[in-house]
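Incident log, support desk, overnight shift.

02:14 A customer reports that sequence design results differ from what the structure should imply. Their input is reproduced verbatim below. On-call engineer (initials T.W.) acknowledged and began investigating.
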């Protein structure tokens, strides 16, 4: 895992952490990094959060990351420090892509080109970290390394915020609110369907 502090457009390392210490906290593809004890990694992560007065955590697919970190902290007898979390995957799916689709339907060529990057085969636009980086022209130095992925995410967050600022009027419009509500309903519908399948499978198993 890896974490970076972001302030005023500059990337800075966390408090009292050298580059090697950050790399030591990853388990991706850095062949020279030593694998450290998970408790040490969780301790460093909590130290990073606790250093600041009003920290906000940002992660791509944050639901997975926060669940994983929380469980690992529980396993080593620790508790994760509380902080608001922004999920860039949710931002992209619920706000960025709908705005791009609206702009594209209005004839905006840049929006059309962006959607082609997110959906080269014409299917539903994707919002994984790599494809968003490609759309914004932010390529990682090393694919699937903790530090490189985090640096790419910082760049993507900055570009998303710039995009939102440039399209603020539509972002706050009723049309956008309706789109978000519709998306929320679709997600809830899928969740209900999944729960019903699980219940049905459990009942069949019990019957057998």
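02:41 Re-run completed on a clean worker. Output:
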């Amino acid at each position: 895992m890896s974490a970076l502090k972001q302030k005023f457009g500059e990337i800075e390392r966390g408090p009292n952490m050298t580059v090697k210490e950050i790399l030591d906290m990853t388990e991706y593809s850095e062949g020279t990094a030593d694998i450290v004890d998970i408790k040490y990694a969780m301790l460093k992560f909590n130290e990073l959060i606790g250093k600041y007065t009003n920290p906000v955590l940002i992660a791509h697919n944050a639901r997975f990351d926060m669940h994983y970190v929380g469980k690992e902290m529980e396993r080593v007898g620790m508790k994760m420090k509380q902080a608001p979390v922004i999920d860039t995957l949710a931002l992209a799916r619920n706000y960025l892509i709908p705005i791009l689709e609206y702009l594209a339907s209005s004839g905006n060529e840049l929006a059309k080109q962006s959607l082609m990057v997110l959906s080269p085969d014409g299917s539903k636009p994707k919002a994984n970290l790599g494809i968003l980086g490609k759309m914004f022209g932010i390529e990682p130095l090393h694919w699937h390394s903790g530090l490189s992925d985090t640096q790419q995410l910082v760049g993507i967050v900055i570009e998303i915020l710039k995009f939102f600022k440039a399209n603020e009027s539509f972002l706050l419009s009723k049309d956008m609110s309706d789109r978000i509500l519709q998306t929320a309903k679709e997600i809830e519908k899928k969740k209900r369907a999944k729960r019903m399948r699980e219940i049905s499978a459990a009942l069949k198993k019990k019957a057998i």
